């Protein structure tokens, strides 16, 4: 029995040692990209081991010092799809992509500098159609709309960024939010669908989203897809 416990401890220590070695050696960096050929992988950028899905990386540009966490999936189109000379996923400098997140692009996803993802964030620029009554939804034609996430944004754990979304600079997205539409600089958004909860005014600081002065710059105009009911509610 004593010998068995000793052997179990030895085996566990060996497994942990191998795993720690693999996590270090398996990282993808600009100096050690392995078989991967990115359009750009900046100095100090690293993709942690193990990754999720990673394909068509030649259409991805990742900036200096950006860290991609474990289990993150980065996908452009379908494996082997040709996008010519286009950069389809662009991630800026100094970003952190939380573990288990997915960035799935078919047209363009542009992420600015110093953007931080919590774990399990999902960003996509494509939705399936659903209106053909006799065709399974997964086989219907998809619609692509570019996504832009501005410098300095924070995306909370489990948030979902849908096609056509534009986030301004330093936008905080609450955990679990489902985001679609356009949102201005310096605001907090949350909910399903996401709406502005707080926003900064240059003259007198932060306001609740529902008391933003009508007529001020950034107030949703009639027909603005980024706002509804005058409160910056993003329609799904």
UniProtKB/TrEMBL annotation:
| Protein name (database record) | Acyltransferase
Region of interest: Disordered: 216-236
Q: Which Pfam families match?
A: Hexapep
InterPro entries recorded: Hexapep (IPR001451), Hexapeptide_acetyltransf (IPR051159), Trimer_LpxA-like_sf (IPR011004)
Q: Which UniProt keywords apply?
A: Acyltransferase, Transferase
GO molecular function of the protein, one example? acyltransferase activity
Q: To which protein family does this belong?
A: Belongs to the transferase hexapeptide repeat family.
